[in-house]
């Protein structure tokens, strides 16, 4: 029985990811990292959290292991399990164990989606113990100082079931993400989608209108991600209204009345 070989080098991000800083998030992350404190990224979907982690992994030269959490994700999925092959039983590290072993960044995206038993395994890693017990192997991995646990969480869902417990959240340094302010979002859109300033400005106006509908018919406003999508379609020659309908309106809602309303907003701008 042996732990499978695993090439941490393959998880290094070689090229600098484009990340537009929006506040003091880089300094905050670096200080937390140096202090071996785990990091919680708070904010709505599509506002740059994943891109930020990729950028920090590149900047700190650490391998990045990302797990998108879902409601079937168990502690074993994170820690690892025995696999029975034709003639032997092998242990396969899960992503969390791999990240601990190689001193990487483990990014658990949307942690509240995961099953409750996953918190049991992240807690000892997220406090001074900094260890990962692997019960099935009777092994306790001590995290090297380079390891950092990063989780993300969208407080906007406002469902008791989707809340992060105090005992979990109080172990982390929290960095809040929101939609970037207009000038920065414009820079991001021009760079990411390859569109001109005027088109970017219109998309941002449209986004602001949908964002004000949050809680009034929309669960979320248009994220930067959706604007980038619409911008990319426009840059490829798709008619702007059709691009906004497909990439923004339809992505936000299925409700007929809401789609009509967003469509009107689109028509006033494009
Ligand atoms: P989240 O992880 O918060 O859901 P992402 O990091 O995937 O969101 O961001 C979605 C997209 O928005 C990215 O792929 C990128 O194109 C763009 N984006 C958002 N914020 C930034 C930023 N600050 N710098 C560069 N790109 C950004």
TrEMBL record:
Domain ATPase dynein-related AAA: 38-172
Domain (CbbQ/NirQ/NorQ C-terminal): residue spans on this chain: 185-268
Keyword ATP-binding on entry: yes
Pfam family name, one: CbbQ_C
Cross-referenced Gene3D superfamilies: P-loop containing nucleotide triphosphate hydrolases
An annotated Gene Ontology molecular function: ATP binding
InterPro entries: ATPase_dyneun-rel_AAA, CbbQ/NirQ/NorQ/GpvN, CbbQ_C, P-loop_NTPase
Keywords, sorted A to Z: ATP-binding, Nucleotide-binding
Stated family: Belongs to the CbbQ/NirQ/NorQ/GpvN family.
Protein name listed in UniProt: CbbQ/NirQ/NorQ/GpvN family protein
Organism field: Pelomicrobium methylotrophicum
